[in-house]
Amino acid sequence: EIQRVTEAGSLQTFFQFQKKRFLWHEDEQVFSSPKFLVDESPKVGDFQKSKGHSGDLTHLRRLYGENSFDIPIPTFMELFKEHAVAPLFVFQVFCVALWLLDEFWYYSLFNLFMIISMEAAAVFQRLTALKEF
Description:
50% helix, 5 helices, ATP-binding, elongated, magnesium, 133 residues, 17% strand, alpha+beta, four-stranded antiparallel sheet, ATP binding, 2 domains
């Protein structure tokens, strides 16, 4: 979706694609990403002379976009389904099914309980790590 924003009397036209902003350049009649200082191969002295951005932060936010990165945290069941189709988990459940066909049903049910408990603990640990950041 193309967006138009009027700022300080000038119209800025842009769109976002895959979280990357593309600005309309009226003189060239093309959309391109905003130019950054590092795109122009600056010298070390340019960075040493820099005093930071003393200009309008609102203008810079509109030009470059917000400096944030949002990673959605999956639910417990989404992560558990991901773990449940892992090859090792599938192999272990298959072995439990084979042991159930034999006369080791006490051992196999206990083993199934332990396998599911270990996977649930791993999922909780992943969720805790994801929420930490």
